[in-house]
Amino acid sequence: MQIGIWIAIVISAIISFIVADFYEQPLHWYLFILIIFIGFFINTVILILKTKDEKEKNEI
Q: CA neighbours within 13 Å on the CB side: how many for 46?
């Protein structure tokens, strides 16, 4: 996994906290960690689907 993806996930979590604070929503530390874990999970699913697609293209 590239370092740019890690940075993008962390920056998006920070931006989501800034937006939530702007709209005066409740913020908890575990939500920040949850956002980061969900970002990595989504990225993992995308990588798995991408490799399956590349395998199918190579077989044809």
A: 8
Asked if 11 and 1 count as a contact pair (C-beta separation under 8 A), the reply is no
Length of the chain: 60
Q: Please report which helix (H) or strand (E) contains residue 39, including its range.
A: helix 29-59
Residue 60 above 70 pLDDT? Answer: no
Domain residues of the chain, as ranges?
3-59
Residue 38 · residue 31 · CB < 8 Å: no
Residue-wise pLDDT tens digits, 41-59: 999 998 888 887 777 777 7
Tokens 């939530």, residue located: 20
pTM for this entry: 0.72
Read off the DSSP letter of residue 28: -
